[in-house]
Design goal:
alpha+beta
C-alpha cells in the first residue's frame, strides 16, 4: 500500500473567497474523488484547528493499492480537473509518498 500525504498552507484571499471558503471548496472537490479513480483506496481532507504559526491549514491523506495506482491518479481526469483550483489557493505545499 502507498500513502500520499500533502500539507498545504492556503492563501488568505483568492478571487474574493476567504481562506475558510477556499478550504471548504477544496475539501469538497478532493473528497469527491473517492470511488472514482482505480487504485485509490481512500482520500480524506483534514482541516487544522490549532492555527499555530507552525501548522498547515489543511492536509490531504490518501491511500493507493500500489505505486502504479498513484501514477494513474496523477494523470486521471478526476484529479487533473481539480488541480487548477487547488494550485490557485495554495501558498505552500509539502508532500510525502511512502510504502507500508
Amino acid at each position: 500500500m502507498i500513502k500520499h500525504i500533502l500539507l498545504l498552507r492556503i492563501k488568505d484571499d483568492v478571487e474574493g473567497r476567504s481562506k475558510a471558503e477556499s478550504i471548504a471548496q477544496a475539501k469538497t472537490l478532493i473528497e469527491g474523488m473517492n470511488g472514482k479513480i482505480p487504485g485509490l483506496i481512500k482520500v480524506e481532507v483534514g482541516i487544522d484547528f490549532s492555527d499555530s504559526p507552525d501548522s498547515a491549514d489543511m492536509t490531504l491523506y490518501s491511500e493507493f493499492e500500489s505505486r502504479e495506482a498513484l501514477e494513474v491518479y496523477a494523470t486521471h481526469p478526476e484529479h487533473t480537473a481539480i488541480l487548477p483550483f487547488i494550485r490557485s489557493i495554495i501558498s505552500e505545499r509539502r508532500l510525502i509518498d511512502y510504502a507500508v
